[in-house]
Amino acid sequence: MSLPLNTAYCLSPLGELEIHASTAGLVAVHFPAVQQDRSLASARHTELPAALGANTAFELLHLQTDSHTKSLLQEAAEQLRQYFAGERQTFNLPLAAPGTTFQQQVWHQLRQIPFGHTQSYGELAQRLGNKNAMRAVGAANGRNPIAIIVPCHRVIGADGKLTGYAGGLDRKIWLLQHEQRVAGHFHSII
Q: What positions carry a catalytic annotation?
């Protein structure tokens, strides 16, 4: 039996974010424009704000919720606002994203990657006890439904190159550079 979902719509420095929650916890955080335009590769580059990187404004636009999830959605929006303002490096929210046992293990490991740092798929596979599971780790990473809070953007290729991100590589670059600036150890990631 699935629980009913409630939604918050927020405006972030990277465009609109949707936050979905049930009474069990957060179920998804994603960029809806990317979800809607997944087949239009060029849309990923044109929907970003013109002043990307300069703006850290975050605003809760609208809540579609009942009283059971209102406070959770408001708290998620507040913690995301703090993240974008450089005031928060970790999130403490209940998560309830559906996934296989392996996906849940990968998503848990993603939350262990320190703010402002990156890890390769191979390093994550090794931490899970199977250094040969890099592709499975990559697949689970790509299916992460809770962007930013479960920081799949911190995963890079073994050679240090950036790999795919459901929100688009421009957003991944912005998130990594934002975290490095806040953490005080900025270096080029491109």
A: 152
